[in-house]
């Protein structure tokens, strides 16, 4: 039903960095999907299409440094749009973390999930305004920080990042 | 600035309630990062699961600790392991008062649970409470969970609150409420059908984000019922116009495009609304034309919008001006160097040729290029296009190419698809039956196990029925050529089962028909098949029946039957087979051989598979037998409708089943147990049902009216035998084993056979094929043009040069054309092979690591690094130290510019030159180009940099961790 069936982040070595399933997949299927797709995507050459047809669906992927961002869509979707959604996600991550790198995502995978939840809701692309995403995530964080009595410095930095 | 970012990262890492101070977790992540194999990773994770199992069940865990455990569970689950033991703790966490903890709980449950999980019932109450919270962040977290977890049964529990939230002052909440309502609509349209008007209302929300969100449900509503939303065309058009004219806040701009994602969604909706509706479409022409003009075709997002425009134009009522713009955009896509754009161009072309077929012609060479591209994705897309534009004039070339490709791939999913497409095209456009059989043979040979069995049955029917109404000689010629080709194919080592069944059937039916092959030759071949594929009982069954037919024809013709010794031993083996089906057939064979010529002829008339058979459905010939039995005191047959006990049982079962499926929230009280139902079944009836014949045999006979050997009506004894067999087979679900089913499909005349076009020139096809095989070396360009000509026809036909020099005695102009087609396809095929064998471009060294995963022990790049001068090495590591955190930096570095810090930030460079913003294809070209540059050291440095940036298991880099954590 969803426009996007799942989101996968895989490292070049085939390690899973983030998975989000919008359509229902059993645990067994999930493992199979990841194994199959990393086999297909990681072996593709650099100049080829960023799209792969797979089991009647389409997977759009893009490599950023050592990380592959993959999204699976229906065969009649607009691949270029999905490519930009991926890029948009990376840009927001980059704004949030400030020059994001793979390590940020490894250790802060839950943050990456929170941001993804602001961008995609039940597999539909949501917020086209980068600023309001970062603002919304920052609002949640700052609440967290209030609880931790660290408000001052962190919100400054987040405000900096949000600019 | 750099420093600030580093601080930000450190703070962000340490900010999660002290969670990241836990050394345990850091160690876990690190050790998994360094794991050298999947097995090692699994071992570590299993150890972690044990630890967590112990920890979470300890009493009085502080919230902070618990939160960490839950995130560790998420991590474990993300790596593909089962953390279900901890789900309940995540559920508990959502009950917590502090948002900090609650948020983690919600995150975990949305990741852990599917909508049908039993634990959801425990969360519903919390969600209800949180939806009423006055903290909008709590509401948002709850709405996220609603979207993922609420199922059909729990919708009523949260629906009123979600509807209230549509008017919430915070736009983030309104947006999520819309999406939740959309989700409800997807899961159970009836439960929210009265609320659909809310989507229309929210379309006028003054927040663009909320308006954008309503487009998702509206798109779905429009696609299910276009006519109820025609009134919105004007609104959608005016919104799109405003968006395109940059009336939305600047924050919605994306890479200099005004709200492109909203534009795309609107274009999708307009495409639906304008489809086949001239009046609605006329409202859209201006705005779509404007967008075509305004789109920046140098950025990827611009092209995404352009592509959506093309889709829209090809869907709405055609407008010549827009079609022209669309054609222009397509040709820009196809001429681009980016594979992504080529792919979109091919796709768009496939959409547009439905309206204006002539547009394909100008792009023929580009299409051929894509067809020969090494990129599988592009190739498949092109095959899809060819499939869409297949006509009777180009079917041979296209299907030949498809089959060549089908043979070359291993992906079973796609192989199935392309095989079924070949079959479909061949059935639809086959120029001749010989060609059709040839193509089918290839499909069966290479993808036989993947095609539907019906395809084989269709082919049997074609061979049996022939194509000419009165042209018997053509029919028998067709059959002889089929027999010839099958005998030839039987020499192949491994043949798919479906194909063998087909071959056996054809050999049995027509193997000896034209007198070219002796009965002993054919029977020998058949018994070879049965022996070689001895574990395939279906094939053996087909083979035995085929043997029976051959012997029967021999006897009927008055010849003496000498069973070959191998056949005899085969029969002995089958007579004692564990398969009752095989036994049955073997006994039948034995019985038939013992009969005289006259009897055999009426049992097995030759070439009678197409004859209609009259079936006595009432089984009147059994009346006497039944009468006798009833007189002797047997129970009479009770039709199903009159069996009260049976009905009740099935009723009861239904209720039971219903009760089981609708577990979960029950809003009404449970019914009283239905004792009456059980007691109403009288024991006598129950007992009698055991003896009542199951109605299945009857229905079998009805659905396969011809499942009886041709002479059935004249030979009561054999009919009875067969019928019982059918019953048995049906019961065990093995219809395909019976010879009857095979004949049935071939005799059923109801299906229309699409392959009845008679083509005069079919006889010499195979010979021309052979002759041109040898001429392979011709100039590429003219070859491509020729292939294009054969594919696209039309004006390009004039490009066919006689210079390629083959003299044909010209039996007819049609023949000449055909041979052109054949030839070019052969040559292109050989060319393709040559292309594949070409050694890889040495300069394409850019990213060798992408193609092959490096062995864990030896690191070639480490070795290469050693070859560099010490200074460069220093430089590279320094660069790595400053740049490694930048995930996007890789693509923007210019050769030699590794020291330039400003360059490392892709975002800054993005704003400077929007061109780098292009699709991945473009950015990766940049990388490739830079590594192709004259300076070899630079490319090596880059490689080492890339390697250091990843958390490579082969080269654990302690600096990587030290850098970030201080």
From TrEMBL, chain B:
Pfam families: Adaptin_N. GO terms for cellular component: AP-4 adaptor complex; endomembrane system. The keyword NADP does not apply. One of its GO terms (biological process) is vesicle-mediated transport. Keywords: Golgi apparatus, Membrane, Protein transport, Transport. Residues 759-771, 915-933 have a biased composition (Polar residues). Residues 53-593 form the Clathrin/coatomer adaptor adaptin-like N-terminal domain. It is found in: Endomembrane system. InterPro entries: Adaptor_Complx_Large_Subunit, AP4_complex_esu, ARM-like, ARM-type_fold, Clathrin/coatomer_adapt-like_N. Its main location: membrane. Residues 935-945 have a biased composition (Basic and acidic residues). Residues 727-771, 791-818, 915-966 are annotated as: Disordered. Subunit of novel type of clathrin- or non-clathrin-associated protein coat involved in targeting proteins from the trans-Golgi network (TGN) to the endosomal-lysosomal system. Adaptor protein complex 4 (AP-4) is a heterotetramer composed of two large adaptins, a medium adaptin and a small adaptin. PANTHER family: ADAPTIN, ALPHA/GAMMA/EPSILON. Belongs to the adaptor complexes large subunit family. This is AP-4 complex subunit epsilon. It comes from Hibiscus syriacus (Rose of Sharon).
């Amino acid at each position: 039903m969803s426009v996007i069936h799942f989101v996968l982040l895989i490292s070049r070595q085939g390690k899973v960095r983030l998975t989000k399933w919008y359509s229902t997949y059993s645990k067994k299927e999930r493992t199979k999907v990841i194994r199959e797709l990393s086999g297909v995507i990681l072996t593709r050459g650099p100049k080829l299409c960023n799209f792969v047809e797979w089991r009647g669906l389409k997977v759009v992927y893009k490599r950023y440094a050592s990380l592959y961002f993959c999204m699976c869509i229906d065969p009649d979707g607009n691949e270029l749009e999905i490519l930009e959604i991926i890029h948009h996600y990376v840009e927001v991550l980059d704004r949030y973390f400030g020059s994001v790198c793979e390590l940020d995502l490894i250790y802060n995978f839950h943050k990456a999930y929170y941001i993804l939840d602001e961008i995609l809701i039940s597999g539909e692309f949501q917020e086209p305004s980068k600023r309001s995403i970062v603002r919304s995530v920052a609002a949640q964080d700052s609440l967290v920080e209030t609880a931790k009595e660290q408000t001052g410095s962190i919100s400054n930095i987040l405000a900096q990042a949000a600019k | 600035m750099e420093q600030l970012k580093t601080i930000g990262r450190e703070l962000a890492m340490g900010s999660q309630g002290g969670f990241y101070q836990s050394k345990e977790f850091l160690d876990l992540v690190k050790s998994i990062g360094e794991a050298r194999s999947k097995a090692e990773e699994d071992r570590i994770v299993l150890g972690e699961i044990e630890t967590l199992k112990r920890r979470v069940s300890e009493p009085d865990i502080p919230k902070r600790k618990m939160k960490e455990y839950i995130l560790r569970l998420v991590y474990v689950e993300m790596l593909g392991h089962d953390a279900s033991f901890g789900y309940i703790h995540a559920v508990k966490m959502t009950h917590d008062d502090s948002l900090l903890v609650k948020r983690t709980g919600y995150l975990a449950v949305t990741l852990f649970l599917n909508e049908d999980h039993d634990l959801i019932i425990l969360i519903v109450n919390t969600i209800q409470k949180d939806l009423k919270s006055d903290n909008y962040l709590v509401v948002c977290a709850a709405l996220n969970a609603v979207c993922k977890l609420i199922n059909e049964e729990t919708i009523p529990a949260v629906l009123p609150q979600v509807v209230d939230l549509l008017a919430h002052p915070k736009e983030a909440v309104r947006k999520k409420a819309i999406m939740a309502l959309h989700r409800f609509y997807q899961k159970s349209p009836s439960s929210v059908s009265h609320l659909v008007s809310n989507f229309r209302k929210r379309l006028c929300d003054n927040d663009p984000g909320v308006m954008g969100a309503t487009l998702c449900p509206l798109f779905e509503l429009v696609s299910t019922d276009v006519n109820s939303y025609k009134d919105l065309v004007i609104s959608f058009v005016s919104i799109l116009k405003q968006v395109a004219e940059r009336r939305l806040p600047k924050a919605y701009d994306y890479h200099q495009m005004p709200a492109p994602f909203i534009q795309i969604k609107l274009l999708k909706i307009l495409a639906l609304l304008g489809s086949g509706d001239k009046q609605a479409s006329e409202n859209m022409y201006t705005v779509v034309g404007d967008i075509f003009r305004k789109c920046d075709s140098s950025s990827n997002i611009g092209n995404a919008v352009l592509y959506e425009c093309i889709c829209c134009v090809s869907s709405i009522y055609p407008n010549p001006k827009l079609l022209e713009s669309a054609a222009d955009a397509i040709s820009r896509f196809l001429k681009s160097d980016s594979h992504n754009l080529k792919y979109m161009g091919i796709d768009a072309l496939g959409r547009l040729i439905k309206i204006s077929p002539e547009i394909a012609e100008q792009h023929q060479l580009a299409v051929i290029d894509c067809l020969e591209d090494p990129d599988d994705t592009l190739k498949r897309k092109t095959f899809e296009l060819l499939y869409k534009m297949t006509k009777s004039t180009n079917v041979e070339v296209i299907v030949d190419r498809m089959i060549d490709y089908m043979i070359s791939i291993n992906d079973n999913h796609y192989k199935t698809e392309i095989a079924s497409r070949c079959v479909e095209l061949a059935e639809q456009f086959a120029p001749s039956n010989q060609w059709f059989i040839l193509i089918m043979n290839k499909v069966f040979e290479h993808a036989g196990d993947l095609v539907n069995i019906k395809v084989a049955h269709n082919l049997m029917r074609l061979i049996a029925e022939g194509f000419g109404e009165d042209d018997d000689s053509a029919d028998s010629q067709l059959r002889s050529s089929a027999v010839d080709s099958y005998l030839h194919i039987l020499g192949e080592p491994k043949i798919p089962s479906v194909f063998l069944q087909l071959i056996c059937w054809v050999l049995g039916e027509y193997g000896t028909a034209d007198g070219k092959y002796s009965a002993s030759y054919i029977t020998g071949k058949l018994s070879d098949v049965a022996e070689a594929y001895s574990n395939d009982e279906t094939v053996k069954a087909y083979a035995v029946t085929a043997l029976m037919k051959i012997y029967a024809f021999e006897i009927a013709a008055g010849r003496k039957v000498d069973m070959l010794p191998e056949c005899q031993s085969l029969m002995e083996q089958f007579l004692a087979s564990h398969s009752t089906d095989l036994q049955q057939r073997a006994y039948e064979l034995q019985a038939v051989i013992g009969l005289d010529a006259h009897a055999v002829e009426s049992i097995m008339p030759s070439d009678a598979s197409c004859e209609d058979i009259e079936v006595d459905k009432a089984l009147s010939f059994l009346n006497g037998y039944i009468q006798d039995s009833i007189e002797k005191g047997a129970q009479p047959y009770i039709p199903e409708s009159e069996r009260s006990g049976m009905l009740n049982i099935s009723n009861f079962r239904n209720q039971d089943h219903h009760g089981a499926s609708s577990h979960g929230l029950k809003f009404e009280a449970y019914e009283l147990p239905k004792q009456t139902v059980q007691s109403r079944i009288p024991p006598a009836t129950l007992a009698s049902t055991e003896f009542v014949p199951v109605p299945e045999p009857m229905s079998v006979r009805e659905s396969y009216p011809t499942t009886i050997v041709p002479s059935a009506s004249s030979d009561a004894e054999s009919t009875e035998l067969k019928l019982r067999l059918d019953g048995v087979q049906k019961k065990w679900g093995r219809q395909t084993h019976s010879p009857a089913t095979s004949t049935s499909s071939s005799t059923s005349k109801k299906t229309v056979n699409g392959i009845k076009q008679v083509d005069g020139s079919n006889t010499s096809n195979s010979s021309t094929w052979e002759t041109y095989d040898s001429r392979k070396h011709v100039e590429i360009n003219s070859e491509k043009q020729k292939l294009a000509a054969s594919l696209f026809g039309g004006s390009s036909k004039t490009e066919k040069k006689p210079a390629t020099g083959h003299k044909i005695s010209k039996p007819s102009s049609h023949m000449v054309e055909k041979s052109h087609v054949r030839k070019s396809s052969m040559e292109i095929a050989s060319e393709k092979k040559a292309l594949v064998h070409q050694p890889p471009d040495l300069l394409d060294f850019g990213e060798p690591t992408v193609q092959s995963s490096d062995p864990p022990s030896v690191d070639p790049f480490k070795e290469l690094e050693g070859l560099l001068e010490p200074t460069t090495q220093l430089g590279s590591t320094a660069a790595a130290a400053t740049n490694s955190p930048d995930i996007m930096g890789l693509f923007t570095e210019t050769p030699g510019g590794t020291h330039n810090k400003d360059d490392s930030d892709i975002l800054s460079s993005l704003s400077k030159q929007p061109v780098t913003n292009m699709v991945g294809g473009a950015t990766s070209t940049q990388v490739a180009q830079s590594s192709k540059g004259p300076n070899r050291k630079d490319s090596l440095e880059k490689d080492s940099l890339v390697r250091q940036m990843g958390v490579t298991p082969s080269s654990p880099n302690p600096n990587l961790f030290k850098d970030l954590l201080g």
